[in-house]
Amino acid sequence: xxxxxxxxxxxxxxxxxxxxxxxxxxxxxxxxxxxxxxxxxxxxxxxxxxxxxxxxxxxxxxxxxxxxxxxxxxxxxxxxxxxxxxxxxxxxxxxxxxxxxxxxxxxxxxxxxxxxxxxxxxxxxxxxxxxxxxxxxxxxxxxxxxxxxxxxxxxxxxxxxxxxxxxxxxxxxxxxxxxxxxxxxxxxxxxxxxxxxxxxxxxxxxxxxxxxxxxxxxxxxxxxxxxxxxxxxxxxxxxxxxxxxxxxxxxxxxxxxxxxxxxxxxxxxxxxxxxxxxxxxxxxxxxxxxxxxxxxxxxxxxxxxxxxxxxxxxxxxxxxxxxxxx
Length: 326
Known about the structure:
By secondary structure, the chain is α/β, with parallel strands linked by helices.
């Protein structure tokens, strides 16, 4: 398959991502800390433009970094021969862009959840994440010139739409892995429970993750991280084991059936189709009454929690829900 023309209309939003502004603030704090440690010289090593990423480090290494520089994701596996042809080309090109791009390499065998969240059907598959939003680029091996054209468009879109001009590269800087480790952050009272929840999510134990987050909230009802994590874990737990084709068929055949539309909306959101999920449930609110309507309303509010209260689509959907109810 050939690389696609770049269009932000194809963006798939990552439902598990917090507001891009929050991530940007964290990234700016990290850059300031790095500058202080490096004596203000700034700049990363060329070796740090290509990184291996797993599920545990995805938010830090991809989502947060994507608020300062577009991150190209290479989904690969050791047994994949086309991957072995494509990966060196991507690595070479990203280094040539000299800080305008980062390359995150994800082994699909070790990171099945990320593969599912991005909807990867075959490898090699290449995506980009810009300001917390994921964009499919192309699947399969391609020539260097074709890939470069796609990356040129990515850089242009990132700068024009999001103001991302990349990061500074210092040829004399040492790789980050060789630098001294930062001092450990203070451990909070619920860090162990939150870490257990994350580990359960990584292992596909969504029920265990739900319980771990509830344990935190039972003592600290206002814990923002636990609230967000619980909403995400409950969503993944609900869709686990569903037959997507059957769910879609039921929803199409029963437009006023609350349970059918709720299940389809969950799948919409897991697949990154945020507006579709919200629109489906708002339309169902208009078609239903009584307990069914309330069940749809409650599920919509739960999905708002997954996406984040400050997301513009959530704000718009709240207004639409109010109009549908009143």
